[in-house]
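Hey, can you fold this one?
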Amino acid sequence: MSASGGTKAIVAALGANLAIAVAKFVAFAFSGSSSMLAEGVHSLADSGNQGLLLLGGKKAKREATPEHPFGYGRERYIYAFLVSIVLFSVGGMFAIYEGYEKIKHPHAIESWYWPVGVLVFAIIAESVSFRTAIKESNVTRGTQSWKEFIRRAKAPELPVVLLEDFGALIGLVLALGGVGIAVATGNGVWDGIGTLCIGLLLIVIALVLAAETKSLLLGESAGAEDVKKIKAAVVDGEVVTGIIHMRTLHLGPEELLVAAKIAVEHDDTAAEVAEAINAAEARIREAVPIARVIYLEPDIYSASAAAAGTNPAKD
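Sure. Predicted structure:
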């Protein structure tokens, strides 16, 4: 997986969620709180999600084969998309169902100190996990805002863990509020309302994750900074005089395909062009190390052909 930070954040979230899930189910057994049941299922689903992310990272490391010549880097995108589906169905829809049932058939919360104590413990544990995810994300986030980081990150693990932990913390606060008001008023409907809010929150987060991972699955180009570096690395000003057109595509979070038609002079020899292409590939890999698959096609740039649309304009 990309960075050890991504794996560290996933493992931290997995450990926290497993411990929290057990605590929540115990609290549900003693109190009968639907918020605790929904939160327990949520934590269990999150644990499964972290397992999926780790599995995707392992499968993505497989060597390329004749059937999959560009490797398996996109496995990580597929498993991140599965996470959004699990979060939507197992987490969000189940919580909405439980909330509806509790509002329709409310009952008082028994042994209120169990859910309250577990929720406080869960908030502390999730805060530690969330802090780890933030710390590891800052290594690669740079100057981007959090919104930009989630939308533009090519490695899906950290955005997934960030959104999961954020949703878990908000969900815990909602659960604590629902349980607290239900205990204070003696009206179990509030517990159901808290559960319903948790379900709606999880569905919103799942839809955001699905949209972002769908874009990665469809294939995203390199970031603007990397594109700028690649263009600067291609042109040497001697044999390679410009870029006619260029396309980039992420084959995985740490593997980039670069395909470009480059402009050369009509009197350059084949040997000179071949040497220039090899040098350009070396410069690209030095400027952008994740550019591992590079195809450069030489062509004679023609202004008239570009104007006619048969030869794209030189960049």
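DSSP finds ten helices and three strands in the chain. Let me know if you want another pass with a different chain boundary.
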